[in-house]
């Protein structure tokens, strides 16, 4: 007997931002494979009989190998279990959902994907930043702070010249290189920047600064991962931009 796997986007953290389809999938799960960045409160929707397996991945920490996660999903589905792979944000936004779906389908397993609100959308909006604005930006680019290898590193110079809002995931550890690349590409040192940590959760904190001051301001703030970095003039729309930017400080 073979069941199915559902890749579920758990959103940025606030359980109220789950979709109805996500809640229904979790409620029907026999097995839940959960990432580190998922708010544990979301597990309250799972049946008491469901097995919860932690398969977290976090930069700089011990992580569950991707190959093991895929083998585990295949084994549980082949055992006839309804499997939910619960991911922070959206499964297809830096969540390896594409890799997992391909692997499952290659083994003949039915896969459903439930989109979720990505932190790249939720973090800016939580402090009043629109990603596009007729006066500031006609588009947005979502980019990881680091590639799989050196050959796949983002082209920061090209991104700087695009004139688009940049939403950077997993960029805290490489903020110096990101700043250097953007400045080298022609981005102005006074370009507004926002950093939002733990978006939509009770412990959310944020920093408003400029590109020229970003690395030092980030170190001084004490903000770390998981954080979203937003670069562009749309950051001028942030709540209290005028009062926070001078002197630059962190708000909660």
UniProtKB/TrEMBL annotation:
<keyword id="KW-0169">Cobalamin biosynthesis</keyword>
<feature type="domain" description="Tetrapyrrole methylase">
    <location>
        <begin position="5"/>
        <end position="214"/>
    </location>
</feature>
<dbReference type="GO" id="GO:0032259">
    <property type="term" value="P:methylation"/>
</dbReference>
<keyword id="KW-0627">Porphyrin biosynthesis</keyword>
<keyword id="KW-0949">S-adenosyl-L-methionine</keyword>
<dbReference type="GO" id="GO:0004851">
    <property type="term" value="F:uroporphyrin-III C-methyltransferase activity"/>
</dbReference>
<dbReference type="InterPro" id="IPR003043">
    <property type="entry name" value="Uropor_MeTrfase_CS"/>
</dbReference>
<dbReference type="InterPro" id="IPR000878">
    <property type="entry name" value="4pyrrol_Mease"/>
</dbReference>
<dbReference type="InterPro" id="IPR014777">
    <property type="entry name" value="4pyrrole_Mease_sub1"/>
</dbReference>
<dbReference type="InterPro" id="IPR006366">
    <property type="entry name" value="CobA/CysG_C"/>
</dbReference>
<dbReference type="GO" id="GO:0019354">
    <property type="term" value="P:siroheme biosynthetic process"/>
</dbReference>
<dbReference type="InterPro" id="IPR014776">
    <property type="entry name" value="4pyrrole_Mease_sub2"/>
</dbReference>
<comment type="pathway">
    <text>Porphyrin-containing compound metabolism; siroheme biosynthesis; precorrin-2 from uroporphyrinogen III: step 1/1.</text>
</comment>
<dbReference type="InterPro" id="IPR050161">
    <property type="entry name" value="Siro_Cobalamin_biosynth"/>
</dbReference>
<keyword id="KW-0489">Methyltransferase</keyword>
<keyword id="KW-0808">Transferase</keyword>
<protein>
    <recommendedName>
        <fullName>uroporphyrinogen-III C-methyltransferase</fullName>
        <ecNumber>2.1.1.107</ecNumber>
    </recommendedName>
</protein>
<dbReference type="GO" id="GO:0009236">
    <property type="term" value="P:cobalamin biosynthetic process"/>
</dbReference>
<dbReference type="Pfam" id="PF00590">
    <property type="entry name" value="TP_methylase"/>
</dbReference>
<dbReference type="InterPro" id="IPR035996">
    <property type="entry name" value="4pyrrol_Methylase_sf"/>
</dbReference>
<comment type="pathway">
    <text>Cofactor biosynthesis; adenosylcobalamin biosynthesis; precorrin-2 from uroporphyrinogen III: step 1/1.</text>
</comment>
<comment type="similarity">
    <text>Belongs to the precorrin methyltransferase family.</text>
</comment>
């Amino acid at each position: 007997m073979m069941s199915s796997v559902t890749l579920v986007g758990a959103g940025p953290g606030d359980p109220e931002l789950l979709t109805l389809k996500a809640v229904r999938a979790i409620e029907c799960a026999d097995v839940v494979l959960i990432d580190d960045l998922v708010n544990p409160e979301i597990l309250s929707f799972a049946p008491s009989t469901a097995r919860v397996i932690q398969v977290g991945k976090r930069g700089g920490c011990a992580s569950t190998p991707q190959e093991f996660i895929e083998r585990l999903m295949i084994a549980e589905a082949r055992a006839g279990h309804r499997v939910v792979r619960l991911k922070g944000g959206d499964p297809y936004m830096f969540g390896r959902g594409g890799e997992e779906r391909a692997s499952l389908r290659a083994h003949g397993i039915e896969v459903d994907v439930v989109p979720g609100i990505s932190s790249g959308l939720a973090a800016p909006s939580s402090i009043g930043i629109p990603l596009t604005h007729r006066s500031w930006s006609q588009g947005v680019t979502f980019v990881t702070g680091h590639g799989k290898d050196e050959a796949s590193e983002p082209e920061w110079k090209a991104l700087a010249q695009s004139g688009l809002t940049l939403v950077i995931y997993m960029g805290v550890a490489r903020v110096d290189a990101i700043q250097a690349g953007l400045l080298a590409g022609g981005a102005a040192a006074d370009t507004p920047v926002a950093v939002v940590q733990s978006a939509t959760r009770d412990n959310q904190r944020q920093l408003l600064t400029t590109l020229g001051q970003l690395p030092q301001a980030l170190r001084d703030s004490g903000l770390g991962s998981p954080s979203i970095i937003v670069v562009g003039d749309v950051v001028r729309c942030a709540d209290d931009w005028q009062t926070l930017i001078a002197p630059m400080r962190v708000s909660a």
